[in-house]
Structure prediction request, 411 residues.
Amino acid sequence: MYRKWIIFAVVVAGFFVLNASTFASLGVVLFVMADDLGWSYTSAGLSFTILGLAVGLTSFLPAILLQRIGARLTFCFGFFCVALGFGLASASQGLGMFFAAMCLAGAGFSLAGNVTAVWLIGEWFPEHTGRMIGLYLMLGGIGDIMGPSLSHYMMEWTNWRFNWMLLAVICGVLILVGGAFITERRDVSGGEARTDNSRGPDDAKEVDGAIPSWRVAIGRPLFLIIAAAITFNLACVTTVHSIAVSHLKLLGLSPAVGALGLSFMAFVSLAFKGLAGPLCERFSSRHMLALSMALQAVGVVMFAVATNPALVLVSSLMFGAGWGITVVATMVLLVDCFGRVIGAQLLGAAHQISSIAAFGPLAAGMAADKIGSFAPVFFAFAVALGVLALIMQVLRDPGMLKPSQAFTRPV
Prediction:
């Protein structure tokens, strides 16, 4: 009984560390490094792109390793890569070594992050997968909020080399903890062991009873819509965060309003990640995803035309709610419709596809240079999200499970 909660605590702690130590706090450390080592801000900022691409382009690896070596070794190997990357970062003297460090950290993020966590949560919490995924994302997402402050104080007290080395040590501790506590599930009451390749009530089946491979499932219309939802959600979030202050300044608002809007958006997203799990269990996860994309579309349109602080806050509320629910609903829907094993593999494939979202800020910048406004890109994102929401609402994929086939909650 307690084993599953220990495993859940381990994956939450891992996600917290990944969030706090990478994207959230990299900017705090990076520009101190740039001043110290004489890097240009353009060159230093390229590390963000490299880290993001490393995460996206290695997202297929967990799907392979989880099947071959299991969740425990995949989790530990992921944090080994992150620890090695942080160790290289602490010793960096030039951009080449630091870029290599970010590649290792990005690969480790993929291996130890959401795909492995969804695999384990689906295995240990088959009856409340949606709720636990939402709780995992909410608790681990606190790292996004705390990471920058923790890094700031660490830089004040020590230096950037010690910061990276301390993070490497923390990752080493997670390797030991994960190796000690992450195990396969054994159903003691039923007397049967459950391994990564075992079938259970949460494993998806085709109508004819055969379990499809992820290579077959990747061609399903349902998966393609989910992958598009993940991609446009990430593109919206990345673009809004990168140009919010500049966009609102063009509309006559101060940078302080932009910062407030982004902070409020992050807190709303975090709260709705926690709420989305129970909502996806109570209602159809497919309908919840359609609703979340509609909310995000409305939010991004309001943000595009936000000419006063009140409108910024309302748009942040709508956008943050859609953002948080989308992250959870896409994961839950993959597990609901394709099963724990295939669902985790498809999540990795979707994350790899979503790498193209990194070009969202570039497109917004090009629009601003050409016509003097970022709004057209926001409108384009809103149209795409609205169309996806409509398709998701009416989609009838013949390969999609009916609730009676594998689940007791609505799909």
Residues 188-211, 401-408 have pLDDT under 50 and may be disordered.
